[in-house]
Amino acid sequence: MVGQALAGMKVLQVGEGVGVAFAAKLLADLGADVVIVEPPGGSSLRNMGPFARGPGAGDESGALFTYLNANKKGITLNPKHKRALGIIRKLVLEFDVLIEEYTPRHGHPLGLTYETLSQLNPRLIHIATTPFGETGPYRDFEESDLICRALATTVFHSGLAGHPPLLVGRNISAYFPGLYAAGLAIALYYQRRRNGRGEHVDLSKIECLINLSASSALEYAYTGGHFSRGYRRSNQFPAPVWPCKDGYIGFTLMTQAQWEQLCVLVGHPELVEDPRFRDPLSRTASAAEAEHIIGPWFKERTMQECFTLGQELRVPIAPVLGPGELLRDPQHRARSYWTNLSPVEDKPLEAPGAPFHLPSSAWAIRSAAPRLGEHNEQVLCGQLGLSNRVVGRLRSQGVI
Amino acid sequence: MSGLPFKGIRVLDISNFWAGPFAGQFLGDLGAEVFKIEAIQHMDPFRNFANLPQGDAEAARLFYEWSARTNGANRNKYGLTLNLRDSKGRDLFLRLVAISDIVIENFSTRVMTSLELDYPFLRAANPSIIMVSMPGYGSTGPYKDYVSYAHSLEDFVGITSGGGYPGGPPVRYGLGMADPIAGMFAAVAIVAAVEQRDRSGSGQHVEVAQAEALTTLMAEDILTYQIQSSVSARQGNRSSIMSPHGVYPCKGKEKWIAIAVQSDEQWRSLCDVLGQREWLEQSTFATARDRKEHEDELDQLIAEVTTRWESYDLMHSLQRAGAPAAVVADGSEPLSDPHWQGRGFFQPMARKVTGTHPYNNFPGVFSNGRPPLRLPAPTLGEHNAVVLRELLGLNDQELSSLAHEKVIGTVPLGLGM
Q: Is the pTM for the entire model greater than 0.95?
């Protein structure tokens, strides 16, 4: 796509995880030419619901697959077929970046290590995302979102005191490492223009994820201790989430001024002088009492009222929104943030739009996610130079 | 390490707390020369999250150098202080802009304008500068002036709403994930702008509205809501499809194991390892659907068994048998874990004031190893003299006079709030 930041970058997406699809989506949306390589039966992600028109409505794929793989082309390949290696060889020579997600226990989806890939194309940039890394005692562990998050110390510290640790956030173990994969792909592509060399990155999901733990390992190293789970901690007043009339709002109080504004907001300015609530430590000690006095104001108002009135006084309040409420929220609407993913024009299916704005690289959904093998001819003939006849043979032999 | 992608790129990171600095750190890790620019009138407020060693009076005095959060988010950076509200400080900053490539800021929308340092000014100093702004909600829209922190953004986009025990209220993520995530979205945007400039020669003003970046994570919930007209209730550590799936107690205080069974084969492995083959006879546990239906009973039965196991032993036993399981590690456990250690993830690093401690390495091992930790997080204004002398040609008298006028310095005047 001429004029976009990554115009001309050619990317192969290998693996069936949400993470690799997301990483490659970031690149595709910035103008890279991304081709997904699926097994002839299709990526398992196509079968993951929900389905916009209900399961079994033709060959429609799940909504998440559709969202993650817009702006990309798709080819199929059976890497186990004896004729596959010739195709892979040509692909690897033609493309700049191979972005791959795999679990070492189950092997590379294309059956190729970087050693082989770099022999085929020394200029190839290979980003290999695995759950725990390509080396180490946990290399061959089975994974899931919960498993990765737990091992990366990002579950232990969440939850309420007296309850088990709590997983908060869905599939963050796909998205956060995906951001690293995309950032590294671009950085190494930029570097290759200078040094002409490819590169391999062994990217471990848990090594990315541990960064969500606010340096808790370092905190432990500094102090010999680490904070416990739950809201009643020394720097946590008030309890973060409070009920209001139609849901919940969230607080974050960072400064004395914000506490004072909160007292004004709820009509209790006298609390500022009250010795029970003078500073963060005493507020925590008297938290239950403070909440008893302040709570009713919020209970009598809606999320939106608390949010608007609070922000007018610069109190950092936010509404605790669910997806329906977020879709209706005026801020995203005012910025035309949502994009329409619908396969059926009169039935909008909105999805997140541009995650950032580069004025010189306009963001848009230019094409829908590919149907299975939709671009076999375009890529194999158009880009790799195979004849239609050869491609037909490959298809009948089950290579693609 | 033969060479790093961003060697030769210079970044002025004037951002605060965590989101902006995290983006700057990614660039620094990949070889850029990053200047973390604070002011003694307004040091980075993140420094207030101090983690003081017990009974250390000197540490308490220099509390602002003891923030693990700040020191973990600002490595591979040089430290400067410049009072941007002072005309001399502002001039020096613009002279740095003239010889830099990127400026990162995450102030609320009006600040750069009020400093007369918004994009038109920066571009006048350097036509190819890449400026990166990271407002909470966006530079436009009804919430453009709203105050936000990581937790508020998690509340707003829906991360908080999705978290919580079954039947209970929403529960936040304990440590603020929105900041490093928004930081990495910004990092991707910045490297894309650098790549684009390499071909076009032009800079641009990049905006990363953190609420927009973070909403990307909610795609599944957003799509599900529209298609099913509802979203699943909070389910603690459970899954809509997999069972058993959760966190179970192990032997000892606050020791837990996470288990996520994704197939009937893994269910059999779990029963084997736990020595509970009779569960395989129970028709109420035969399929994932059955197990989900009887989840309360099943979770209780599992907990009664896991509580007799050491967490690491159980993890290894289950994983050997092919069942996904992991210790629910607390912040300190990776420091003594053979996997993290074996991969060299923690790097001892010497730093002024705090001494030598293990720091997180860069996640990502290249052919020749990890991009190195070259510099610890700077102390306040640590590199004022060397940077202003070597890059801007200031002499000792000029430096001394700037310090006297409190344009630069190394001791904070306020708490940065």
A: yes
